[in-house]
Amino acid sequence: MLEVEALHTRYGPVHALDGVSLKVEAGHVTAVLGANGAGKTTLLRTISGLVRPTEGRVLLHGKDITRTPIVEIVRSGCAHVPEGRGVITELTVEENLRLGGLHRGKEASPPSEIYELFPQLVERRTQPASRLSGGERQMLSIGRALIARPRVLLLDEPSLGLAPLLVAQLMACIRGLADNLGLAVLLVEQNARSALSVANRGVVLNLGKVVADRSPEELQSDEQLRHAYLGF
Amino acid sequence: MTTFIDYTLNGISNGAIYAAVALALVLIWRATRIVNFAQGAMLMITTYIALAVTNKTGSYVLGFIVALASGLILGALVERLVMRRVEDGPPLNAVIVALGLYTLFVAVAGMIWSDTPRPYPNAFSILGYKVGGTRLLFAPDDLFIVVVVILIAAALAALFRYTSLGLQMRAAAFKPEVARLLGVRVGRMFTYGWALAAMVGAIAGVLVAPSVFVAPNNFDPILITGFVAAVLGGLDSPPGAVIGALIVGLITSYVSGYEGSALEPLAAFVVLMLVLMVKPTGLFSATKERRV
After folding, report:
1. Please, what's the b/e burial string for A59-81 (b: 16 or more CB within 10 A of its CB; e: otherwise)?
2. Chain B closest CA to A143's CA: distance in Å?
3. Closest residue to B183, CB basis, from A75, A90, A98
4. Contacts of A79 in chain B (CB under 8 A)
5. Mutation target vs B (from A70, A96, A138; most B CBs, 10 A cutoff)
6. Which residues of A touch B170 (CB under 8 A)?
7. What pLDDT score was predicted for residue B289?
8. A37 has a chain B CB within 8 A of its CB
9. Does B184 lie at the interface with A, CB-CB under 8 angstroms?
10. What average pLDDT does range B96-116 have in this prediction?
11. CB of B286 within 8 Å of any CB in chain A?
12. Closest CB from B185, B287, B290 relative to A71
């Protein structure tokens, strides 16, 4: 579904991605873990076209999208939920949702389907998104991505700033998206333990390189790796 | 009492013109975070074009329509060919480029049309309405100005509020990167924003032209007053721009009526200084978002 082959991205002298390869299949969640500055966010930004790699390829449904304009990448079913304040706070909740579906026209989900998934958003529909709590904003960002019925979902630190109970709910919801909708999910997280609890695969990044690409069980049982990169 | 009513009505019709200029500035500021100092020169060019059409055909309406169309085209061209290159740079670059464009347009207009001021026809009579034997300082032409500006403001509000194009333009303006990730063609939205703004500016040009005459530098004062109105309204908010323009229109009208018209520009600057000292974010700027 989504394949990344030997990707290199540089910001001036900084080598943010140094030959990263990975794969996400439909219905699977791949967690990308690692410390701050490991290149996790850069990986997502490179896949969705916000930054361009200097070498390597990104394949979506087997098609090379490495040089494809962002708008086309989005339209071909790859949704990127950016970190933190991706919600447009000046717009209402409903406007944020509608915006996400515009490029799909009639093929987008009706907002009611998203409200079914995240019932807390219904009563906030006409309010500006600036009034939402952190958890509600995260739901809105994800809902806004889902409304376009994507095939691949890139999530950047969705648990950031959420209470532990909310994090657990969110992870269960992400698992559900992969299981029920067959989405390929690339989940970037600092919260390694929660992410691995729902992932099919865990990729550990350090200084732009993949140091491990294994099943969650293997990662969790490797004590050295856990201490060095995952912080638990 | 009648003089007070006269000054008030005059302030409202002046305010309407300032509102159109302020809206043009606000639209561009919202879309691209650039204060378009070339706006005065752009609306001067479109007014010259409208005047040429009106003189040739004898039709005010045709000139008006041509002003709108040439505004749209000029705005889009300026964004695509010039401002696009400085949008991502430091804000000062855009300001300098806008000032450069202003100089360029004024020079070109002087070369083509000379510096001699030309009269521009009024849409309707400028003979004031008669109420109880006295003539008010408010004529059918003033009513036309007020109605046109109300219609523009309403149309803009409807565009931003109820259409998907408006929604995409707002998203592109507020958070360009997020908008891009949601499939919005952000560059195109910026072009539309400039085109729309220049069109609104062109309307202001045609409306004010009969009272200032058409010459390369004759539209500078209304740009300054329009800018004061936009800042007063918060620079970010179209309704704020309209209300700010009404306030500035009334203040300048009272000052020029009671104290003499020489003080009118001064009054505008005093308002600007007061706003910048007391509430630099303007009266109607959006409330800062809560950080969670």
Report:
1. ebeeeebbebebbebbeebbbbb
2. 12
3. A75
4. 181
5. A70
6. 90-91
7. 39
8. no
9. yes
10. 95
11. yes
12. B185
Q: Find tokens 């910001």 and name the residue.
A: A11
Q: Which of A130, A138, A144, A155 to mutate to test the interface with B (most CBs of B within 10 A)?
A: A130
Contacts of A95 in chain B (CB under 8 A): 167
Structure-token match 């005047």, residue found = B51
Domain annotation for chain A: domains and CATH numbers: 1-77+153-232 (3.40.50.300), 81-150 (no CATH)
Chain A contacts of B159, Cβ < 8 Å?
Answer: none
Tell me the pLDDT band of B2, cut-offs 50, 70 and 90: confident
List CB contacts (< 8 A) between A148 and chain B: 182-183
Position B285 scores a pLDDT of 64
Chain A residues whose beta carbon lies within 8 Å of the beta carbon of residue B287 = 130
Closest CB to A90 among B183, B185, B286: B286
How confident is the model over A20-73, as pLDDT tens digits? 999 999 999 999 999 888 899 999 999 999 999 999 999 999 999 999 999 999
- For every residue of chain A, DSSP letters joined together read -EEEEEEEEEETTEEEEEEEEEEE-TT-EEEEE--TTSSHHHHHHHHHTSS--SEEEEEETTEE-TTS-HHHHHHTTEEEE-SS--S-TTSBHHHHHHHHHGGGGGGSPPHHHHHHH-GGGGGGTTSBGGGS-HHHHHHHHHHHHHTT--SEEEEE-TTTT--HHHHHHHHHHHHHHHHHH--EEEEE-S-HHHHHHH-SEEEEEETTEEEEEE-HHHHHH-HHHIIIII--
Q: What is the ipTM of this complex?
A: 0.90
pLDDT beyond 70 at B124:
yes
Q: How far apart are CA B5 and CA B179, in angstroms?
A: 48
What DSSP string runs through chain B?
Answer: -HHHHHHHHHHHHHHHHHHHHHHHHHHHHHHHS---TTHHHHHHHHHHHHHHHHHHH--HHHHHHHHHHHHHHHHHHIIIIIGGGTTTS-HHHHHHHHHHHHHHHHHHHHHHH-SS-B----SS--SPPEETTEE-S--HHHHHHHHHHHHHHHHHHHHHHH-HHHHHHHHHHH-HHHHHHTT--HHHHHHHHHHHHHHHHHHHHHHHHHHH-B-TTTTHHHHHHHHHHHHHTTSS-HHHHHHHHHHHHHHHHHHHHHH-GGGHHHHHHHHHHHHHHH-TT-SSPPPPPPP-
Report whether pLDDT(B287) > 50.
no
